[in-house]
Amino acid sequence: TRSLTPRSKPSSGGGQEDTPDTAAIALWPFPINVKEYEAHASRTLPKNAFDYFHSGANDMITLRENRDAFDRLRLRPRVLRNVQTVDMSTTVLGTPVPFPICVAPTAMQCMAHEDGEKATARACDHHQTLMTLSSWSTTSLEETMEAAPSGPKWFQLYVYKDRGITADLVRRAERAGYRALAVTVDTPCLGRREPDVRNRFKLPSHLTMKNFVEMSGDNDHSNGVKKGGNDSGLASYVASLIDRSLQWDDIHWLRTITKLPIVVKGIMTAEDAEEAVKCKVDAIWVSNHGARQLDTVASTIELLPSIAKQVNGRCEIYVDGGIYRGTDIFKALALGARAVFIGRPVLWSLAHSGEEGVKHVIGLLKDEFELALSLSGCTSLSDIQQEMVTHVSQYSRL
Question: For the whole model, what pTM was predicted?
Fold first, then answer.
């Protein structure tokens, strides 16, 4: 097993000091950006775990585009705006957060660090920002809430063929104190991620899908994830449970069994955004599932403007995918998002140093975002305007 702790500090003893390599300097005591956290994770995590977290579907074109599309956007800052005081606070479905950076659901976090979802919850609690727990967590939804009860949390939900499984998870989320359901709608079946196929990925034997182990009644499906085969063991398991027949009417059904706000996660077109609004969802989450489902779909930041235009303020809009810098957050808010959700940056920092790593990476992005606001002449989120972002192609027309 590879170490999940930071590299040791260079010697400061008497005489000539050791000359550490550049990577060691950069990683003491913490990486200074998300890419350095990712590089550290690639060296320290077991290959099957890193590949599972890192990979996208098929040729991973969308995975690259999620990042590259941000780099094709240019900022148009304003000056002489008196930015002595900058307020980054906002609300997400009425919950106050100190900045518009929330944590997306990522499965099996105990593969990154032994404290897994508990560490992430405590880090989010430290910053008083929102965490979304994956239903495929390696810590139960109850244990995660107990680890950090004061921080706001949502629960990510799939709708299963057996509606009893779905209803059981919803009831447990309500009892535990989760504030909303993030319903994933882009996964009638699991995308094909070739590294997982090559690695014959299965959940390590010492870990379990805790939310399924602790099902009430006869709904114990946890052992299914252990099954192998020629494809990913996880793929076989998910395919056996997730309902391919899911339709918009099922969102209405979900309304009948819960009073929690419903966020639909996985909207990629203006047409589906309109359908979601007609279903009276509480919020739309623009997402291509971290580029893990259908390859060659557009990046989320490119999809965002048309969706925001269609929704026209009728519900809140969030976005995830490829957010590695504070300037990415600024661009997302300028193009219509109320808040952003980060996934892989949390996993990379979790692998580095658990709770402290996640605290640090959230703080890094917060500081970068505050800097972007100040240097763009914005003292609050309401100052961010769409015309402050332009596509690089505009400059080729000059």
Answer: 0.90
